[in-house]
Specification:
The chain is α/β, with parallel strands linked by helices. The chain has a single domain, classed as Spore Coat Polysaccharide Biosynthesis Protein SpsA, Chain A (Alpha-Beta Complex), CATH 3.90.550. Helices cover 26% and strands 26% of the residues. The strands form two sheets. Strands 1, 2, 3, 4, 6, 7, 8, 9, 10, 11 and 12 form an eleven-stranded mixed sheet that branches. A two-stranded antiparallel ribbon has the order 5-13. Helix 1 packs across helix 4.
């Protein structure tokens, strides 16, 4: 069975200033997402599911459809909205912030029944990363709790134009993820790389630290276990205005309670993305370089 690619595309990219999932940064107007799906097709994925919102669904579907990908891969859409909550829960009055990346994954529970990888729509992961994770997922049909992720070096994932958020990984001697900590406000300083905590204090981070760029691989049981955990999350944080149900929160919980193990896969691929609009020229140049080399 071919694995499925789940693309988290519901974010409107407020920092970038528009629907960056559709921004033509390639030499022929390609979006970063075009390269990701192309690499996924080459790696052997059989279906792509886009998590979007109804507010821009028509525009998105006009661009990213089966014909756009030359009918080489099946395309489906699911929708992440604030009121997509388990029975008995409702959106707190005044809340506008989405429920987070793991909530986005849950939107696909009814359309994915095979091992799957998830990505951000606006990140470039590289062909080798898709090959590595596809090869792993193809071995998992019928298993439970055997997950994986592709790790990147922190220093290769920063923006020169502002802070970023990354899941910093703790890896054990067997190459398994022991835990992941979501760090926000990571920047490069004169003294090295550091992140800012809630109190505004700066803490150093190693340049070669392994970080998650939301390239994970799961089996379908992840939907069931994640929904159970989401109910717990909502009971504890559902009345807050800005609480988010992050992927690292779920992954850490499943590892800590012994339900799952997560293999950290290595890749030679280089990550890049448009976190801020000022990042765009660099991305355009790097993609042109890949075309010049004949990669695309």
């Amino acid at each position: 069975m071919k694995p499925t690619l789940l693309v988290l595309a519901a974010g409107m990219g407020s920092r970038y200033g528009g629907l960056k999932q559709m921004d033509g940064v390639g030499p022929h107007g390609e979006a970063i997402l075009d390269y990701s799906v192309t690499d996924a097709i080459r790696a052997g994925f059989g279906k792509v599911v886009f998590v979007i919102r109804h507010s821009f669904a028509d525009d998105f579907k006009k661009v990213f459809n089966s014909e756009h990908f030359h009918n080489q891969i099946e395309v489906e859409y699911v929708y992440q909205e604030l009121d997509a909550l388990p029975a008995g829960f409702s959106v707190p009055e005044g809340r506008e912030k989405p429920w987070g990346t793991n909530h986005a994954i849950l939107m696909a529970k009814d359309v994915i029944h095979e091992p799957f990888a998830i990505i951000n729509a606006d990140d470039f992961y590289g062909g080798d990363a898709f090959r590595v994770i596809a090869d792993y997922l193809k071995q998992l049909d019928g298993t439970r709790g055997d997950y994986c992720m592709v790790g990147y070096r922190l220093e290769n994932t920063l923006s020169e134009n502002g802070s970023v958020s990354r899941g910093v990984c703790n890896i054990d001697a067997n190459g398994l993820l022991a835990g992941m900590t979501e760090r926000t406000s990571i920047i490069r300083t004169a003294d090295g790389i550091a992140y800012k905590d809630a109190d505004g204090t700066m803490h150093p981070l190693a340049a070669d630290a392994t970080v998650s760029m939301n390239l994970f691989g799961f089996t379908p049981d992840y939907f069931v276990e994640s929904e159970k955990l989401f109910i717990t999350f909502l009971k504890e944080h559902g009345t807050e205005m800005k609480s988010e149900y992050y992927i690292p929160y779920a992954v850490n919980t499943f590892i800590a309670n012994g339900y799952a193990k997560m293999h950290v896969l290595k890749t030679t691929a280089q990550w890049f993305g448009v976190t801020y609009k000022e990042d765009r020229p660099s991305v355009v140049a790097r993609l042109q370089g890949l075309h010049d080399q004949g990669v695309y």
